[in-house]
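Predict fold of AEDO dioxygenase; 247 aa.
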Amino acid sequence: MPRDNMASLIQRVARQARITFRSPAGPAFGENLHRLQQLLDEVRAEDLHLAPRGPSAAAAAAGGGIPWGGAVPPVSYMHICETESFSMGVFLLRSGACIPLHDHPGMNGMLKVLYGTLRIACMDTLPPGAAAAAPPPSAGGGPCHRALYRSRQHYTPASPPCLLSPHTDNLHQIDAVDGPAAFLDILAPPYDPQHGRDCHYYRLLEGQPPAGAEPPGLPREVWLMETPQAADFWCGGEPYPGPRVCL
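Predicted 3D structure, encoded as C-alpha cells:
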C-alpha cells in the first residue's frame, strides 16, 4: 500500500502524543498510549527524509561551528517539536557510539528505531532501604543506588517501540551495534532541571565475569554509582529535514 501522505503520519504522531501526555493520570491514558504506540510503530526513516549514513556523511552534516576541537559528536539530535507536555526529535548515533546509562525523572518515554541496530539496557531504581547488601567497597565517587537490571535487548526498525515510564525501565543505556543508527524519541514531559527533571548519569558497579563464564542472568539487582557526564560523550545538533509538525 502506498504511503500517501508522509507529513500526516509524523503530524498524527505529534497530535496523538499531545493528547496522550496532556493527562497522563487520566482514565484514558492507557488507551491513548496504545494508540500512540501503534502510530509510532508505523514510522520509517524515509517518512522523516532520513537515510542511513557513514562517518563521512555524519561529519559533513555536523560540520562547522562545533566547539569540540573539530571533533564530530558521537551523537546528534534533530529537534522536531516540543510542548509543555512532551518533546519529540531524532537521535543519530555514529557507528560504535553509546548514550551512557541515564535516567528520566518522573517521565514517560518512547523510542522507535529508524535505521541500524540498537542495544538497549533497561533498569529500574529501587526504593531506599530495598538493598539486600552494601555497595561494593571499591565504589568511591558519587552516590550509589540499588537498581533492578531488567533487560538488555537489540532493537531494529522491525521492532516495536521501546517504552519507559516513571517507574519501569526509567534508566537505560543505548549502544549503536555494527554501524550507525537513528531513533525517533518522545519524552513526556521534557527534561527541565528547574522542575526536578534533570538528566543524571550512572555507572554499573559490576566486575567482569571470568573468561568462559556465562553472564549473570536478568532480571537481577545491581548497584549503580552516579557519575558526571562522560568526557567522551556529547550531543551535537542537526537540522531536521522531515515534514513540518504544527501543534
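The radius of gyration is 19 Å.
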